[in-house]
From TrEMBL:
<feature type="binding site">
    <location>
        <position position="145"/>
    </location>
    <ligand>
        <name>Zn(2+)</name>
    </ligand>
</feature>
<comment type="similarity">
    <text>Belongs to the ADIPOR family.</text>
</comment>
<keyword id="KW-0862">Zinc</keyword>
<feature type="region of interest" description="Disordered">
    <location>
        <begin position="1"/>
        <end position="30"/>
    </location>
</feature>
<feature type="transmembrane region" description="Helical">
    <location>
        <begin position="189"/>
        <end position="208"/>
    </location>
</feature>
<keyword id="KW-0812">Transmembrane</keyword>
<keyword id="KW-0479">Metal-binding</keyword>
<dbReference type="InterPro" id="IPR004254">
    <property type="entry name" value="AdipoR/HlyIII-related"/>
</dbReference>
<feature type="transmembrane region" description="Helical">
    <location>
        <begin position="251"/>
        <end position="270"/>
    </location>
</feature>
<dbReference type="GO" id="GO:0006882">
    <property type="term" value="P:intracellular zinc ion homeostasis"/>
</dbReference>
<feature type="binding site">
    <location>
        <position position="293"/>
    </location>
    <ligand>
        <name>Zn(2+)</name>
    </ligand>
</feature>
<dbReference type="GO" id="GO:0038023">
    <property type="term" value="F:signaling receptor activity"/>
</dbReference>
<feature type="binding site">
    <location>
        <position position="289"/>
    </location>
    <ligand>
        <name>Zn(2+)</name>
    </ligand>
</feature>
<feature type="transmembrane region" description="Helical">
    <location>
        <begin position="125"/>
        <end position="143"/>
    </location>
</feature>
<dbReference type="GO" id="GO:0016020">
    <property type="term" value="C:membrane"/>
</dbReference>
<feature type="transmembrane region" description="Helical">
    <location>
        <begin position="220"/>
        <end position="239"/>
    </location>
</feature>
<feature type="transmembrane region" description="Helical">
    <location>
        <begin position="290"/>
        <end position="310"/>
    </location>
</feature>
Length: 319
């Protein structure tokens, strides 16, 4: 009778692995990656896209193994991990640059930082709010993709954090706009900020509920609806002050581009395009989830550009 080979030398009979399984006791090993069918059997909580037919990590039983997998070898979560880990690092570096008065990264429209108006404490608070929300979202997303093949409990907790991070980024992108869009109108500022915060809390409750958490389109539509909640206050500004004001004082074009980036990426993710059209062709690179991550980064940049534009608009209004 032929001998059955384990997935990796030192692996357990149930397919689980720890970082210290080789003879030297070092973590420098690479497990045999699994097919979709194998992963569905051994790591079902981290396997839900039948169009990604291979490249799955086995069940890694500790966090150190998961962390090593992020840099030690290529698998079908590598791009997902690093698109958002690098994005989180970028926005984290931008935070101190915007709270120090002598450092202001400029948009292409402004050739010199000297042309930018001085920042008030509230300007800095708005920037800090956005950067913290962006780092939170991207960091939690990267963490989830890193540990998704760990225990079911670890994956489930990280997945909840991933959903909360998306809500945090959407709300954090909208709230500063309420301050600038209704500058000098504290009642409207407060009403719209409270409304957006309530919509964010409701969205978090929905996507964290056991029923909706397991339905991809339910989650996607909830996130899209939360993002579209910005249409009401932005529409209010357009109707009250005109489209020209919205463009010149709020960076309306950047807001629209950011929202379109988020929505387009989310729809591709929910529809699983392109891998649903060519199963197995995008196991490592180019899958819908990876494309979605790139559109999230693009959208976050557009939202940042809009926020910088609003800062200038506020200064012009006060001049």
């Amino acid at each position: 009778m032929p001998e059955t080979k384990p997935l990796l030398s030192g692996s357990n009979s149930n397919g689980t692995h720890s970082a210290k399984t080789n003879k030297t006791g070092k973590t420098g090993w690479k497990p045999r990656l699994l097919s979709f069918e194998e992963s569905r059997r051994l790591v079902p909580w981290a396997t839900d896209n039948e169009y990604i037919t291979g490249g799955y990590r086995p069940h890694l039983v500790n966090i150190s193994s998961c962390l090593y997998s992020a840099i030690g070898y290529v698998h079908n979560e590598t791009v997902n991990i690093h698109t958002h880990s690098l994005g989180a690092a970028f926005w984290a570096l931008m935070l101190p640059l915007h709270i120090l008065p002598s450092h202001f990264p400029t948009l292409g429209t402004f050739p010199s930082a000297a042309l930018l108006p001085p920042s008030t404490l509230i300007d800095k608070a708005c920037m800090a709010c956005y950067f913290v929300c962006a780092v939170t979202c991207l960091g939690l997303s990267s963490w989830f993709h890193t540990v998704s093949c760990c225990t079911h409990e670890v994956c489930d907790l990280a997945h909840c954090g991933d959903y909360v991070g998306i809500v945090v980024l959407i709300v954090g992108s909208i709230l500063p706009g309420m301050y600038y869009g209704f500058h000098g109108q504290p009642l409207l500022q407060g009403l719209y900020m409270a409304g957006i915060a309530a919509a964010g809390a409701t969205s978090a409750y929905i996507v964290l509920s056991p029923h909706h958490r397991n339905h991809r389109w339910d989650r996607t539509l909830t996130f899209i609806a939360l993002g579209l909640s910005a249409v009401l206050p932005v529409g209010h500004v357009v109707l009250a002050r005109g489209l020209t004001y919205a463009r010149e004082m709020m960076g309306f074009s950047y807001i629209a581009a950011g929202g379109a980036s988020y929505i387009f990426g989310a729809v591709l993710y929910a529809a699983r395009i392109p891998e649903s059209l060519w199963p197995g062709k995008f196991n490592y690179f180019g899958s819908s989830h990876q494309i979605f991550h790139c559109f999230v980064l693009l959208g976050s940049w557009f939202q940042f550009a809009a926020l910088r534009w609003m800062h200038v608009g506020r200064a012009l209004a006060d001049a």
